[in-house]
Design brief:
alpha+beta; 9 helices
Length: 383
């Protein structure tokens, strides 16, 4: 009787002991395995040597760097800004937009949207504007750490048209204090990257992390030195403006008025920029971004999978300057030579071919889109 009474307890104890042994073994195996992590945010993109690829940093950042155009009765002001939160809020300099009656923004893919003022500094040269259509992805802002003297930085300006600029440099000084046009700059970074007209308000990016550390604001006349406002020092005020603003209470302009008065030269420049951006996206394997540049008539005929499969073997894309003409319907026909290197399973080296591409771009729902892409293999001179 005693033996049968304790047998279940003994059996349960043996099972528990074996269970703990098995769990301990599985835990040790789990600790030794690498856990893959997938995150598309730019500050986590790495190459095999854990260094951020410069071209990838610039391409990803330009999606969130914005050209700003302020207009009043007397003049047009241009500058830059960058998306910093998921509401579509853009950080820029106060001097870029303070005298504007209406504000428009142009994105890296040549899209135009109206913007409204969220907040403008009186003594500090910072401002925030909002574009609800751009709500979504944004740039990562470094809120805690200051870069040090000697750290490599990237200064980005307007990512569009002739004002598209990317300059590299270092933090060459800190705690610079001065005043310009009624604005006080305190503890500004001195940088060797040039800040020219049109760059004001753009982000200063840490080369190692891809994070925004400053707002590019002022440059010397000779172009050898630039100054950037530390984002860490002003982010509290910026976030206070954003949190207090209600979109339905903001004043937005109309994009249709701007587009209807667009001159042919500017329309051509916009179309040619869009084509270059499309080809850059293909080379960097950013097929989602490239696909989004197509007009509805192309989207209806081509699925994303088919579009991606068409370009997936492209390893390098280089092109000449396009030659463009405009029709009476404001369609822009742009013709250019494009050299493509492709992967090949049968050959050790990639294949290399040159094509003549003809892009047709047009406005669709107030936005510039690619409505047609025609390709023809370029014949060699001896053929």
């Amino acid at each position: 009787m005693i033996k049968s009474k304790h047998a279940p307890m003994i059996l349960s104890g043996v099972i528990l002991i074996f269970g703990f042994i098995i769990m301990g073994y599985m835990y040790q195996q789990w600790k030794q395995e690498d856990m893959p992590i997938s995150n598309p945010v730019i500050h986590q993109i790495t190459t095999s040597n854990q260094e951020l690829d410069l071209k990838s940093i610039i391409h990803e950042a330009e999606k969130n760097v914005i050209q700003i155009e302020g207009q009043n009765e007397d003049s047009t002001m241009t500058g830059s800004g960058f998306l910093y939160n998921k509401q579509g809020d853009i950080i820029t300099n106060a001097h870029v937009i303070k005298d504007a009656d209406v504000i428009y923004v142009r994105t890296a893919d040549a899209q135009i949207y109206p913007a409204a003022v969220v907040g403008v500094g009186e003594d500090t040269d910072i401002a925030v504007i909002r574009v609800p259509q751009l709500a979504g992805p944004f740039m990562y802002v470094e809120k805690e750490k200051h870069p040090e003297v000697g750290d490599e930085v990237i200064a980005l300006g307007s990512p569009h048209g002739f004002q598209n600029t990317v300059t590299l440099g270092i933090i060459s000084g800190q705690e610079r204090n001065f005043s310009v046009d009624g604005f006080n700059y305190n503890n500004a970074y001195q940088i060797s990257a040039q800040i020219a007209e049109g760059n004001s308000g753009g982000p200063l990016i840490d080369r190692k992390t891809g994070n925004v550390v400053g707002i590019n604001s002022v440059g010397t006349k000779d172009g050898t030195i630039g100054f950037s406002i530390p984002i860490k020092d002003v982010i509290e005020q910026i976030e206070a403006w954003s949190n207090a603003a209600q979109t339905e209470e903001l004043d937005f302009a109309s994009t249709s008025d701007l587009i209807s008065t667009k001159d042919p030269e500017k329309l051509t420049a916009d179309a040619e920029y869009l084509i270059t951006y499309f080809l850059d996206s293909i080379e960097l394997r950013d097929y989602v971004n490239a696909y989004a540049l197509l007009a509805s008539e192309m989207l209806s005929k081509t699925s994303y999978k088919d579009f991606r499969d068409k370009y997936i073997d492209f390893t390098k894309v280089t092109s000449d300057e396009p030659e463009s003409t405009i029709t009476e319907e404001n369609l822009v026909h742009s013709k250019l030579s494009v050299t493509i290197e492709k992967r090949s399973e049968d050959e050790e080296k990639p294949t290399k071919e040159t094509y003549i591409y003809t892009f047709i771009t047009k406005y669709e729902n107030d936005q510039l889109k690619i409505s047609s892409i025609l390709t023809e293999k370029q014949k060699k001179k001896d053929e």
